Amino acid sequence: MTQTQINVENRARQSLGSSSDPIYQMVARTVAQRHPGGVLVDVGCGRGKLWSFVRDRFDRYIGVDAVRYPDFPPQLEFIPFNFDIGKAPLPESFADVVCAVETIEHLENPRAFVRELVRLTKPGGLVIVTTPNQLSLLSKLTFILKNQFNAFQEAPGLYPAHITALLEIDIFRIFTECKITEIQIQYSNYGRMPFTPWHWSENLGFRGRAFSDNILCVGKPKTLSQET
Asked: pTM to 2 decimals?
């Protein structure tokens, strides 16, 4: 195993292989709103937790990650692959939905990564990407006080696992450059209050960009008819 592979696996394991429920719920809402089905490829799948939130909408699930975690469900399909090194061993236009939950911030080249997500997605399918929200109140205050984005500080589970911080506009631009259309940004509506262990109450109206720790970008790759 090369040193690069070791570094990638170490970064993957530092993420612990799962995200918070509000992130998966945000993905599930998006899937329900856009009415997909069929095959789901979960890129950076970790422990496969996404499947429990969307299993009623898909016929097949394939998880792809740099490492296979011991508690990844044995009944689910898994492909080991490092998205920093090229194309995944799956054919073009393979999946109805390709989803990358809290994965893009772990990778060296976000544009190459999104191009690969597009390659894997069927015409008319969905590409879904979630990542930490650099424009939340928590992240902005952390940046002002520490000169670091909150989710990219040198702390356990953050840097060096998180290496690529993207603003909302960056993700939108990347999707546009990769010929993705019908782009939408959504928010987790779940965010930690600065300097406390508590979270903003969505029921009290604390929703949207300022009060969400994570964002989601979704869109459809252009079809051949749209490109001509």
From this structure: 0.91
